[in-house]
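User: Just a sanity check before I run the rest of the batch. Below are the structure tokens for the first item. I only need the designed sequence back.
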């Protein structure tokens, strides 16, 4: 049934210390009988046995198992064979110390698919009785002697009624009495099954073997059937046969009887013994030249027989009560489930947490810490990767248009692009300053409204001016919309920032306080009437007011050239009617100019009536007012157009911003949605920070991964024995992998996830403090979710890696690693 052909195996192949451990081994094993592999230590017996049992691979050769021809080692094929057809007995027993005797054996039945508790009970009881271990079924293997452990190990190998029993020096650690007992059981098994037994004791081979294969240096040097009728000359050392000794003395009366025996002819010195009985205890006071004294009673495992030692013949030696019929599993219902249930793994993991050692507690603590570290680094990365759009100056409706001064389109041309958008507004207003006036000295500013948010904020944090049409009434969270031209509204963010940066110093602690203050924009007194909900820094005034004030930004402050003249153009609300000295207020496209400008104009010879036109002036003039500055006053349209002519980069408010962008772009005009542009600016500003944070985070995550690897590695090393036993018994790799995975998931949940949760709560709390102002961390539901996924991934990868590496080895390699 098992045939191996041309097996070649090397350890350390092609290295200087190469061992040719199996050198062209060909053996044809019979259906049943006891085949002994006999050879000195190091000859390759264990290796051969491992190969036959699928615990190890060979470099060359084939193995036939039943009808299955196995050319290349595949662990899943072997796991199945080992699980169903092979019972392994190891020299060092390899019982699972955490399980009882009963459970050690029941485990194997579950592995072959028998889960019926009654059948399990019956089988385990039978096999334990057969090896005389039934009374010890509840004990842990660590409480048993070597002989007892080996009996349990034999029971474990037999209980699933395998086709083949493989035994690697099963009596190597046993005394002679136990050796005989164990060998007798094995011999009995071999009457119906194939038993491949490895030993280096020729004696055992000769007494028990049906066939003896002698091995030396990885080669078969002899292979013969054992027909001789050897007697077991292993003396029964634990029985004292009195008839085989010299009786020297026999004393006695009604109270005491004493006799002295000696197994040698050598004369011994007199032995003085005093027997004292006190408190129902017998005391022996011995004075003798013999220093070694042993007491014979029930616990001593010694027996005194008043008879001669009779050498037993082979039949007598092989007497045993063991029968294999009771273990037939052919008709038993089998179902394949995982051996260790998820519930058991769960309990195991919980136990680990609750009853862990000091080292274990440090490990769990480091799991919790790693959770916190991951939360921190994810929040850090999120803060840099996810753009802080609160620095955007305009709402999403704005399109930024850039053109060169020379190839600039007309204002009307631009309006034409808008496709009849009634909301279209070209914002060329620029930036302004707003001061809070000192109530004691109206000419002095107490402080200015300021905006200074964010670590990566663009350099100019000046306040942008926009018209009130772009605020929806529903967004006013305090006060109301402006009604007259000197009323204005600011954004909530600007209000908060102004209070935080300077306002609080001057007793302005709230929006209510702020709204009581007197303000001034470009020297014009104004009233704050409302606050609108927004993350941006914008002041909204009426369109009339926006056009009438003199802006602070360079571009729009510079004079407008009208022909060869320069002048400043401002809105008509600036004008006090009583200042008009000639003509009247302008209507439509007309403007009214200051005396200073009028004087500078080239006068036409004919006396024209108002309104007048001049060759060197573009606008029709409706009149003149008193002022020493060169000023032009006109309608909003005229001013906005004039301002437009001065700028090459401006914002266009549109109700269909994306459509406008594509129309402009189709004509090769550079146009970007404000939202996109600000995102780009932000991205560029933060790219450096982003790289740094990402590297830092990767390093942190790398260390966490490494930490997990080492922690799980050490946890696994302590369980290599357990794993190797499971593997040797034929448990599938996937099942072991799976159970570790569940365990890691449970451990991660009760440790790392808690650390993660605590750190996340901490971060959310701190985002309301100073740290939050710098936006060093960002925590949103999405980042929390991503963080949790990353956390589990790290734990799984770091934790499973050592197990993955271990399970790549053959069971023999794992066993060997345990032995080291
Ligand atoms: P035996 O069981 O007959 O004592 P083994 O099969 O255990 O012999 O070992 C045969 C030879 O192979 C020995 O020299 C041993 O040192 C070597 N050997 C066994 N297992 C390994 C291993 N996993 N790695 C390297 N060398 C090994
Ligand atoms: Mg060996």
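Assistant: Here's the designed sequence for the first item:
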């Amino acid at each position: 049934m098992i045939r191996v052909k041309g097996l070649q195996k090397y350890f350390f192949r092609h290295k200087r210390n190469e061992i040719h451990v199996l050198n062209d081994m060909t053996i044809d094993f019979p259906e049943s009988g006891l085949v002994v592999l006999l050879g000195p230590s190091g000859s390759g017996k264990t290796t051969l046995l491992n190969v036959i049992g699928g615990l190890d691979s060979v470099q060359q050769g084939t193995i036939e198992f039943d009808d299955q021809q196995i050319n290349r080692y595949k662990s899943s094929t072997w796991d199945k064979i080992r699980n169903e057809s092979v019972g392994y007995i190891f020299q060092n027993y390899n019982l699972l110390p955490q399980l009882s005797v009963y459970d050690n054996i029941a485990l194997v039945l579950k592995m072959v698919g028998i889960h019926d508790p009654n059948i399990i009970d019956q089988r385990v009881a039978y096999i334990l009785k057969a090896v005389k271990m039934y009374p010890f079924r509840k004990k842990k293997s660590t409480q048993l002697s070597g002989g007892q452990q080996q009996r349990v190990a034999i029971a474990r190998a037999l209980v699933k009624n395998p086709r083949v029993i493989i035994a690697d020096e099963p009596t190597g650690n046993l005394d002679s009495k136990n050796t005989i007992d164990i060998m007798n059981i094995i011999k009995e098994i071999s009457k119906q099954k194939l038993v491949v037994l490895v030993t280096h004791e020729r004696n055992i081979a000769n007494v028990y073997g049906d066939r003896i294969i002698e091995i030396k240096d990885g080669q078969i040097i002899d292979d013969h059937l054992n027909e001789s009728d050897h007697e077991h000359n292993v003396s029964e050392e634990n029985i004292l046969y009195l008839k085989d000794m010299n009786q020297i003395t026999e004393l006695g009366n009604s109270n005491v009887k004493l006799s002295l025996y000696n197994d040698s002819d050598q004369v011994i010195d007199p032995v003085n013994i005093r027997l004292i009985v006190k408190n129902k205890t017998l005391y022996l006071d011995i004075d003798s030249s013999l220093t070694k004294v042993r007491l014979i009673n029930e616990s001593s495992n010694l027996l005194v027989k008043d008879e001669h030692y009779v050498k037993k013949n082979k039949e007598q030696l092989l007497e045993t009560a063991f029968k294999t019929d009771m273990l037939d599993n052919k008709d038993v219902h089998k179902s394949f489930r995982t051996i260790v249930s998820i519930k058991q793994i769960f309990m195991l993991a919980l136990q680990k947490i609750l009853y862990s050692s000091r080292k274990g507690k440090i490990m769990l603590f480091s799991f919790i810490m790693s959770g916190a570290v991951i939360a921190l680094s994810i929040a850090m990365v999120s803060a840099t990767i996810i753009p802080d759009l609160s620095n955007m100056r305009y709402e999403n409706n704005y399109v930024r248009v850039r053109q060169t001064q020379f190839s600039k389109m007309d204002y009307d041309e631009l309006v034409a692009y808008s496709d009849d958008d009634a909301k279209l507004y070209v914002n060329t207003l620029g930036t302004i300053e707003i001061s809070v006036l000192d109530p004691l000295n109206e000419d002095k500013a107490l402080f200015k409204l300021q905006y200074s948010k964010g670590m990566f904020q663009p350099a100019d944090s000046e306040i942008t001016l926009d018209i009130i049409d772009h605020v929806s009434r529903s967004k006013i969270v305090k006060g109301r919309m402006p009604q007259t031209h000197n009323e204005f509204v600011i954004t909530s963010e600007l209000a908060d920032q102004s209070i935080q940066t300077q306002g609080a110093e001057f007793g302005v602690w709230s929006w209510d306080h702020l709204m009581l203050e007197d303000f001034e924009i470009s020297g014009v007194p104004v009233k704050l009437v409302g606050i609108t909900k927004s993350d941006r820094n914008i002041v909204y005034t009426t369109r009339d007011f926006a056009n009438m004030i003199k802006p602070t930004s360079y571009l729009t402050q510079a004079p407008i050239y009208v022909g060869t003249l320069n002048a400043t153009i401002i809105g008509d609300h600036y004008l006090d009617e009583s200042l008009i000295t000639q003509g009247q207020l302008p209507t439509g496209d007309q403007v009214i100019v200051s005396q200073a400008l009028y004087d500078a104009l080239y006068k036409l010879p004919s006396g024209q009536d108002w309104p007048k036109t001049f060759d060197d002036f573009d606008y029709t003039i409706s009149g003149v007012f008193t002022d020493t500055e060169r000023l032009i006053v006109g309608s909003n349209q005229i001013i906005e157009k004039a301002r437009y002519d001065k700028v090459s980069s401006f914002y266009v408010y549109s109700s269909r911003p994306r459509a406008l962008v594509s129309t402009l772009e189709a004509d090769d005009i550079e146009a970007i949605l404000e939202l996109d542009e600000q995102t780009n600016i932000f991205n560029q500003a933060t790219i450096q920070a982003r790289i740094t944070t990402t590297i830092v985070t990767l390093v942190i995550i790398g260390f966490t991964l490494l930490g997990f690897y080492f922690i799980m590695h050490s946890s696994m090393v302590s369980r290599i024995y357990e794993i190797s036993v499971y593997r040797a018994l034929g448990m599938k790799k996937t099942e072991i992998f799976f159970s570790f995975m569940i365990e890691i998931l449970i451990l991660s949940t009760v440790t790392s996830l808690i650390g993660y949760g605590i750190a996340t709560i901490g971060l959310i709390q701190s985002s309301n403090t100073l740290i939050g102002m710098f936006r060093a961390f960002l925590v949103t539901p999405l980042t929390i979710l991503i963080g949790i996924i990353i956390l589990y991934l790290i734990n799984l990868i770091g934790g499973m890696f050592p197990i993955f590496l271990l399970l790549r080895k053959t069971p023999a390699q794992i066993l060997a690693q345990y032995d080291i």
